[in-house]
Design brief:
The complex is a heterodimer. By secondary structure, chain A is of the alpha/beta class. Chain A is built from 10 helices and 12 strands. Chain A is elongated. Classes of the chains: A alpha/beta, B mainly alpha. Chain B: It is found in: Cell inner membrane; Cell membrane.
Chain lengths: ~260, ~220
């Protein structure tokens, strides 16, 4: 008898629990945030230059700047929640955060779980080289030496589109690829824009300018499914920040490059 | 825990493997010829105290034998361009191998030269031979013959060490292996095949070196 009672209680608790859970998930996050005056944003803490912990122990980076700009536009106080790349979506779907601004790329699996805003940050693999190299397409790399990190996405993708006369030199790791470029052993390199930004920040020997994109997967703000009001507002703010040049300033600050035109 | 081997994914890339093998052999051949030549020069300079070369070779030998090959290679490939000397990955690889084998063979051959009995040199002097003639005809051949097994081993070590050149994108056999396993994700099979290839290469090179020793040196000594 007692056992049955226990089971019943358990079942009831579970039911109530799931009811409350679905309530949170379906509530209007924008209205909630406005009521509390706080916008909770999940940001990375271990992924420079998008989000790191600064010398003052506070999170800083591209994503944090964007979070603060969105908060300013919505006239809400921003609560920064540092997350890792594995738990950033769970934070959103369990209602612990209103927005995920955590260098999140879009893919079909994620689109089943959450909704995405318009793109707010560039994230791509491309060919980089000195500013005076006239290279705009893969065909222009004919006769040039291009350093890549062996087995990387850039290696696999560029190997498919490279002209036969381009010499692809495959190095063991990103460091060797970058050293080869900086010491002039290769004329161009294929790498990610974030890597190129980090290199440009640390050395002035040979700058890395974007020549063309190989694979583009920009970052989007993630919101929960069914939060149409919040999503519309975020999109409106991002569009405004792009138009008034403030997002470009963020890009210059953290990626040391202007926003790509197509973003 | 049964692992299913799939060698077909490696054989797909056999041209890459063959190309890598040829390049490893070329590197080794050029490295051996010039490295041994450098070693003979170094050995005679040090054994006969030919100033100022004996001092120079002493510094060189200590420097090379007390630093890792990989660091020497990086120094040449990434370092020299900063000084305005532009060399490609093959020139860097060959240079590093020659310099490396040169230092080790200096010491090996010096041991052989110093083991020459004094009486032989004195006998040659009494025949009015000059120093160059004595070295070429009386000292060097028996000296090389004495240390030839060590030289064979050192050449095999240098050949195996050339695998490090894959780090500067020289497309030799290890580069081929890394390249293949980054495409087919069959690391076990790929390295299985390449390990076997290195093994066969090492045995073959040792045999060739032993034969070369007998043809070129042993005949002259007798």
């Amino acid at each position: 008898m007692q056992k049955r009672q226990f089971l019943r209680t358990l079942l009831a608790t579970a039911l109530i629990g799931s009811a409350t859970f679905s309530l949170t998930a379906q509530a209007d996050a924008l209205a909630n945030a406005q009521k509390n005056g706080v916008l909770r944003v999940a940001v990375p803490q271990d992924f420079p230059p998008f989000g790191t912990v600064g010398p003052d122990m506070k999170p800083r980076g591209y994503d944090i700047d964007v979070a603060n700009l969105i908060g300013r536009e919505l006239k809400l106080k921003v609560e920064i929640i540092p997350v890792s790349s594995t738990n950033r979506i769970p934070y959103l779907s369990t209602g612990k955060a209103d927005l995920v601004i955590s260098s999140l790329g879009k893919n079909p699996d994620r689109e089943k779980v959450i909704d995405f805003s318009i793109a707010y940050a560039p994230f791509f693999n491309g060919i980089f080289g000195p500013s005076d190299a006239a290279i705009k397409t893969a065909a222009d790399t004919a006769g040039k030496s291009v350093g890549v990190t062996r087995g990387s996405v850039e290696d696999l993708e560029f190997s498919k589109i490279a002209p036969s006369t381009a010499t692809i030199k495959r190095f063991e790791d990103n460091n060797a690829t970058i050293s080869a470029y900086l010491s002039g052993q290769v004329q161009l390199i294929a790498t990610g824009n974030v890597v190129a930004a980090a290199v440009n920040e640390r050395t002035k020997i040979r700058r890395l300018d974007t020549k063309f994109l190989i694979k583009n997967s920009p970052c989007y703000v993630g919101v929960n499914k069914g939060e149409a009001a919040l999503l519309a507002k975020v999109n409106e703010v991002i569009a405004k920040l792009k138009a008034n040049g403030e997002l470009n300033q963020v890009s210059q600050r953290w990626l040391l490059a202007p926003l790509p035109a197509g973003l | 825990m049964a692992y299913v081997f799939d060698f077909s994914s490696v054989l797909e890339y056999r041209e890459v493997l063959i190309d890598g093998t040829l390049k490893t052999l070329t590197l080794t051949a050029i490295g051996t010829v010039f490295g041994l030549a450098l070693g003979i020069l170094g050995a005679v300079s040090r054994a006969w105290k030919l100033a100022p070369f004996d001092r120079i070779f002493t510094v060189y030998v200590e420097l090379i034998r007390n630093t890792p090959f990989l660091v020497q290679l990086f120094f040449i490939f990434f370092g020299l361009p900063s000084l305005g000397v532009q060399i490609n990955e093959w020139q860097a690889a060959i240079l590093a191998m020659v310099i490396n084998l040169g230092a080790y063979s200096t010491e090996i051959i010096r041991a052989g030269i110093e083991a020459t009995p004094k009486g032989q040199i004195e006998a040659a002097q009494s025949l009015a031979m000059n120093r160059a003639q004595i070295f070429r005809h009386v000292v060097l051949p028996p000296a090389l013959l004495k240390v030839w097994p060590s030289i064979c081993s050192q050449v095999v070590i240098v050949m195996l060490g050339s695998s490090v050149c894959s780090q500067i994108a020289a497309e030799e056999l290890t580069f081929a292996a890394n390249f293949i396993q980054s495409r087919n994700f069959r690391a076990f099979e790929t390295y299985f095949v390449v390990t076997a290839m290195y093994f066969v290469l090492a045995i073959a090179i040792r045999q060739v070196m032993i034969q070369a020793g007998q043809r070129l040196i042993a005949r002259r000594v007798k």
